[in-house]
Amino acid sequence: MNYKVRALLIGAGAGAMLGATFAWLSADSSQEDEHGNRTNAVTKLGPMDYLALGIAILGLARQFGGMLKKS
């Protein structure tokens, strides 16, 4: 197996584990609203929160790519 395929598999595995961890944490943090209904944190997020999260993830990927080009 060449290094590109290995790097892709490691990245996909790490991303899947990170995504599963975030999903577990967000599902675990449910609270009751004023009517006594159970809601979780994800339902309270708006479109701008998702946009900010996407921009942060792209910034992290760009920084990681810059680190790899240096070495």
Describe this structure in words.
- The protein has 71 residues and is mainly alpha-helical.
- It has helices at residues 3-28, 47-70, and strands at 31-32, 38-39.
- The protein has a two-stranded antiparallel ribbon with strand order 1-2.
Largest sheet: 2 strands, antiparallel
Described by the principal axes of the CA atoms, the overall outline is elongated
Per DSSP, what share of the residues sits in E-state strands of 2 or more residues? 5-15%
Order of helices and strands: HEEH
Mean pLDDT: 82
- Uncertain segments: none
Order of adjacent strands in the largest pleated sheet: 1-2
Please count the beta strands (DSSP E, at least 2 residues each).
2
Structural category is mainly alpha
The number of helical segments is 2
- Tell me the helix content: over 70%
- What's the gyration radius in Å? 17 Å
Determine the N-to-C terminus distance. 22 Å
